Sequence to fold (709 residues):
Amino acid sequence: MVDLGTDEIVKYPFLDEAGKYLSDKGFSLEQFGSDPDLKKIVENAFERIITASDGRIFKSDLASNNSALPMEIFSFLIAVILLKLSGMNTLIRRFSLAEARRAEKFLEKDLINQKDVKKSKLSLQILQELFSVTVQKNDEHFTIPIADYLKHAINFHEREWKLINRKVVSGKVHLTSHETVRLVRKELDRHIFNKINSSSSPEMIQGFEPYVQKLRTLAKKFEVKTVESTEFPPCIKHAIEVLEKGENLSHSGRFLLATFLLNKGQTIGQIAPLFKNAPDYNPKVTLYQLKQLSGISGTTKYKCPSCEKVKTQNLCFPVSACDTIINPLQFGRKRV
Amino acid sequence: MNERDVTLLEDTFKKFYFDHFELLHVPENSIQREFGFQKFNGGMNRHISLKSDKELHLLLMQNKPSDVYCSNACYSFPNLPMSEKNWLNADLIFDIDAKDVTKKHQPENTLIKCSDCNEISNLTNSCPNCKSTKLAIITLTSSESIQSTKDEVKKLNQILIDELGVNPESIKIFFSGNEGFHIYVPKSEYQNIGSKERAEIVDYIMFRGVIPETFGIKKFDLNKSLFPKFDDDGWNGRIAKQLYRIKSDRSKVSQEIISGGYTLFQKRLEEFRDKIGIQIDPNVTIDIHRIFRLPGSINSKSGLVKIFVENINKFDPYTDACFIDDEKVDVHANCPISFTLKNTKFGPYNNETISVPKFSAIYMICKGVASST
Fold:
């Protein structure tokens, strides 16, 4: 793994090197619950979680890390302990994302660091070792092999990340430093989340209870309730209209309609009659296809395609309510 | 298909395979591939594992298949059901078909066969006999459509080399045996990518999902200097050539783009998609569990062979992929337009019994416009 100094661990406290920091420095967790001098670190850790749960990025005070007790390494590690003790998954999710975005800023800075080649090299190494992305630096821009780029870019819904909207030359995608780092945000988030989730849960530590209790209360705020209207999205209405008119609906249109209705809980018996007017209607084939899609015949239950996919198949006829959704199944769903 | 036709086709195909074993090889890593075959009037037999050319040749002799297939994917257990195969990787493959390139059926080489009354006639919207609109399309040889398909293959090749970084040596072009080409890219850096990633490559090649911002056209801030330039790489350069036509018109056209605004430019991009996007069949490239016609085997839709194309410019499928002999055969043909095979023009035939070389008879039977007597 990468050889890191304290200032690097402050920036990337989720790396393996940071994990050993507590024991290497000779601290036990109990000390943080009882020692008044260490209380500041627990406060800081708690603040770090609160900031993350608000969707903000924890602001680094680099000066606080110059002492023998680099505050931000400890506060990250203690925050993880507090989160594990609270057992609240929604807070862990929010914390991972905020920490990923914090690290993203440092990574971006390090990538373009012209003065300190070591820092720039380290950031390239982190991208390679954690996310298997081989990034090459070419003056102002960065290049990534297309296959590496795609493995990450397919997780984005914004069209700007599609390969067609990128500069592509000789098997490489050209990106800015910001885009390079943004590319791995989800994986960085997942990496931190998995790291926290896979760490063992400690017993309750004396002095941590009030923080843990506050976190549990806070997590309740984030419970989301949704209501759903029964109206179909325009792409589904269109597919049904085409069939009702007895016109030919493309294979992808039929796939969209069937998977949508199956995922909404309709039965094969309810869906099959919709296809009766299709010019090439064959009841046996229709039933076979529906059984395949529903997972009754095979092992896979097919998902409803994303809005992005529906768009590229020319089956999307968006209305304003479509602006905030990424899958037709979400149409009409509202938070309360 | 009637029994007599099936027997004639089975015997002819078998003879071809027996005489041309040298054309039929299992691909590299054959032990990890899934093979499949179809018999005339029969269903698909899949999940077959073959270790060697010998086993393949034996399968051809024993089963007299109408079509033979092999997966582009490698699996740990190719002969188990799909969910248990354990997918390892797959060659990147593109399919360019004449029907997608020409977009519109041409009356010179297209017939319709009514699904209700079986009447065969020239291209129209409904059956002249029973007025049914349930029609099957039959396309016959057309050097024009093959030429435009070849041009499309060349454009794809250029993108694969210049933009996707594929080594030109590793691109293998095959005539599909009917009306198109299969372009194989084995052992590339794309070997391990999944279906979603391949879908992105497909969109790139077909110029789909593009946004105006990619060409410097933003909603509120239109800055000429960001617009595509003639000498730009990739789609930027190709779009520049479409937009400005000639280099010196860049300034004038840029001004028009600014006056037209974002939405108009978006519409123009959609027009360009249909015009200069490469017309590959997206589903073929995206599907990583597909079985493809085996190179060297006969395509039962035409009786022509799926064959490796060494020089796309010189390649003539209607001669180079036509391997069946010219022994005279009597058939009853109903083929109201003519076609050309091995540089010989056949037809039109108007419900008549004729004596033609076997390659022509087989072609017509495969196309469903003739029957053996």
Remarks:
- The mean pLDDT of chain B is 94.
- The CA atoms of residues 101 and 279 of chain B lie 6 Å apart.
- The first strand of chain B starts at residue 35 and ends at 38.
